[in-house]
Amino acid sequence: MMQTKTYVILILFLSMIAWPVFAASSPESGPGEVKKGIQAEAACAVVGMSVEQSQLTALQRARAAAIEQAAGVSVTSATLVTNFTVAADFIKTYSRGFIVAEKATWLPLGQYQKDPSTAPIPEYRVKIVADVYIPKQKSKVIGLKADLNNTVFRAGEKAKVTIKTKRTARIALFNIMADDTVALLFPNAYEKENKLAAGVNFVFPAKDAKIEMEMQTLSGHKKDAEAIFIIAWDEAREINILQHFAPGAAIPVSEFFAKLVEIIDGCEDTILPYEVVGVAN
């Protein structure tokens, strides 16, 4: 499945889920703000993707629209999605605000028709009501920078992330996966030291690491959109990330962000979307 499959010693075995409704308790305190009851709708036509992918993409677009409303930032005005590049852009909005609770209602199946000369295509439509946590303004004093070695991977290719900070900091890497779950990649049971010296390039996985990130599409998928989500915080701040997240354990997106908001204020973060393309038989 995943797309970022940690390999050799740590392997994530995940399965497709039926896009359930998650209801996590929203934080009521802290420097950030919870905006409750944000409503948004979105749709995705089944064009070059499976039914499950279409459903998830519609849900991701609705989440993006809710985050845009809560944060007061417009990323895109389109409500219909037909391609993966746009789907990857929706994942980027997950760092603008964090949906900590959501209720999804699937609307009657619609249809998309480019013009009268083409046959109509099924279109999945969803409406969500979400609670969105908007973190306090970030100072960017840590100077977090991160790059992925590619933005489009073929199945079987290896991914590497390079991270640098201007100040000494501690870091954590998460994988937002194509089955709508998130897992902690680093630190993990084999690499617990997550302190990064100022100005030093950190590469994950390291050359001699017991873990690899081998990209794969979900079973039956030709292409998937995912992301690496990275957070960094001042070394003096006492955050034991392993007490908040279990390495390699996949949890639903809303549950992940509900946990993340307990520590995210004062952290810097960045998100690196990518696509995985299956190998033709």
What does this structure look like?
The chain contains four helices and 17 strands. The protein is an alpha+beta fold and 281 residues long. The chain has two domains: 5-13 and 138-277, Immunoglobulin-like, CATH 2.60.40; 33-134, no CATH class. Strands 8, 10, 11, 12, 15, 16 and 17 form a seven-stranded mixed sheet that branches. Strands 2, 3, 4, 5 and 6 form a five-stranded mixed sheet that branches. Strands 7-9-13 form a three-stranded antiparallel sheet, with no helix packed on it. A hairpin with a 4-residue loop joins strand 10 (169-176) and strand 11 (181-186). The radius of gyration is 19 Å and the shape is globular. It starts with a strand and ends with a strand.
Helix proportion range: 10-25%
Helix/strand-derived class? alpha+beta
Average pLDDT level: 83
Strand content: 35-45%
Shape: globular
Q: What is the count of DSSP helices, taking H or I runs of 4+ residues?
A: 4
CATH topology of the largest domain: Immunoglobulin-like
Q: Give the second-level CATH assignment, the architecture of the largest domain.
A: Sandwich
Structural domain tally: 2
Query: Which spans of ≥5 residues are poorly predicted at pLDDT below 50?
Result: 1-29
Q: What is the CA-based Rg, rounded?
A: 19 Å
* SSE succession: EEHEHEEEEEEEEEEEEHEHE
The level 1 CATH classification of the largest domain is Mainly Beta
**Main sheet record:** 7 strands, mixed
Task: Count all strands and give the number.
Answer: 17
User: Ends: how far apart?
Assistant: 17 Å
Structure keywords:
281 residues; Immunoglobulin-like; seven-stranded mixed β-sheet; five-stranded mixed β-sheet; 15% helix; disordered N terminus
